[in-house]
Amino acid sequence: MNEAVACRASRINILAAVMAAALMLSACAVGPDYEAPAPPVQMRYTPDDQRQIMAGDAPAQQIRSDITMPSLWWQAFGSAELDSLVAAALTASPTVNSARATVEQARSLLNAARGAMYPVLEFTLSGQHSNMTASARGTEGNRYSSGPAISFLPDLFCGTRRRIELAQAQLAYQQAQWEAARLSLVANLVLQAIALASALEQIAAVRDIVAVDERNLELVRISTSAGKTAQLDVLTASSQLAADQALLAPLLQQASIARHALAVLAGKTSGEWTPPEFNFSMLHLPDKLPLSLPSDLVRRRPDLQGAEALLQAANAAIGVAAAQLYPNVTLHASWAKTANSPAGLFGGASFTSVAADLLAPLFNGQALAAQRDAAIHAYAAALENYAQAILQAFGQVADRLEALEQDGSLLATQARALQIARATLGLTQQSYEAGQASLLQLLTAQRLYLESRLGMARASGQRYADTAQFFVAMGGERLTDARPEPVSTAPR
User: Do residues 406 and 53 make contact, with C-beta atoms less than 8 angstroms apart?
Assistant: First the structure.
């Protein structure tokens, strides 16, 4: 009895010694540790970032760095219909759901990579039939064995840890892609709602002018019947009516395209669902716009977070490739019972086995070294790509700032033009009815008024659209911290 206890204690001590040796060996690392690039030193995107944008009698917009970004940036447009549409689309969008599933895939791959840090414990059951010759002093028969077996691959040069870092960076990249998909979806929803509102505003303007054309034509016909005007005036008025009616078809098509785009973005089909009829009365123009400093922008925008995640993945890949240049050791330990029959396994003899395998590269035609060098060059390329992504992001912010400035000026100009055209048309109509103005003067005034109303609708829509694009350039809503988790080997 004491011998059996001593035997078990000896086996436990052997296994413990194997595990202790493995842990002591797992202390070295190859490849560079990742260091995040320093934040940009620039303090502005343009010579005058923080500004107040005037737009005549229209509301002004303030762009300041002390304004907090709304958690749900699209709610700054003050439209309950838009808020409801965005909430539904974020749930139903196949694109967003696909990106979310890819995040979970990357998370599972990270968990699989972490599993390599732990020993593998298995239960083995085997049977063997032997037929040995007499000269070997054996007998024909069966042998059965069963018992637990443990194996462990010590991370001698931290190749496994680098693989975990690589999987973490890939998870961070997929999280950034998911956030980018959400941001793109919401941005497109807002922009299409604005496009629909602009199209409907222009359609209303054209229909008003068409109604005026129809009244003018009727007046000309009455005047012609009375012998006061020539038949040519009738043809001129008819031609003007037809020309203005022709403007409706492209605008109606623009509105249809916007409705269909909203349906697709919402995860619906146009045959089963119709979006709200957005107009400018349903949308509030945000008057306070938050400006993120360049050093903060790189932590907000998902495209920059994704570019940095790829940089970290490339850094980890150097360590993975470098670890291949060094030996690998695999430790094995097993305890098993043997017997001549399956029933005998419950009381048969037992044995313990401890082994170690060493696999070291000797000659491979410099293939492993070339793979490490390739990983180093890939990191250099990723670093340049990250720098280029930052430059493009800063350029986009500068473009949006200047666009908003020009939108304010354009809107003020269009408002003045519309005011003058409306007054001119009113006076010309009175003069024409009094016989003091010609039909040509009336049609010219109508044309200027129509162009001014269409220009006002387009300018308003562009200001709304550039405001939405400004929020997108600032990174929009920050959903999660996509920074990779620190490498951890603690049990989950």
Answer: no
Query: Where do we find the tokens 């980890």?
Result: 316
Contact, 117 vs 155, CB < 8 A?
A: yes
- Please identify which residue in the block is written with the tokens 């570019």: 307
Question: Please, where in the chain does CATH 1.20.1600.10 lie?
Answer: 32-116+156-326+367-473
Convert the pLDDT of each residue in 243-259 to its tens digit: 999 999 999 999 999 99
List, in sequence order, every residue forming a beta bridge with 149; answer none if it has no partner. Answer: 122, 334
Residues of the chain within CATH 2.20.200.10 domain(s) are 1-30+120-152+328-360
Distances (CA, A) of 78 to 188, 282, 284, 286, 460: 17, 8, 5, 8, 16
User: Which CATH architecture does the domain made up of 1-30+120-152+328-360 adopt?
Assistant: Single Sheet (2.20)
Contact between 291 and 65 under an 8 Å Cβ cutoff? The reply is yes
What letter would DSSP give residue 186?
A: H
* Paired tokens of 287: 């008057």
CA torsion sign, 109 to 111 to 115 to 117?
positive
Q: Under a CB-based contact definition with an 8 Å cutoff, are residues 142 and 129 in contact?
A: yes
CA 275 – CA 84 distance, rounded (Å): 11
Q: What φ, ψ does residue 401 adopt, rounded to 5°?
A: -60, -45
> What's the pTM?
0.84
Residue 436 CA to residue 3 CA, distance in Å, equals 128
CA distance from start to end of the chain: 39
Query: Which residues, 6+ apart, have CB-to-CB distance to 111 below 8 Å?
Result: 492
Enumerate the β-bridge partners of residue 356.
331
Per-residue pLDDT tens digits for 328-355: 888 888 787 776 666 666 665 666 777 8
- CATH T-level fold of 32-116+156-326+367-473: Outer membrane efflux proteins (OEP) (1.20.1600)
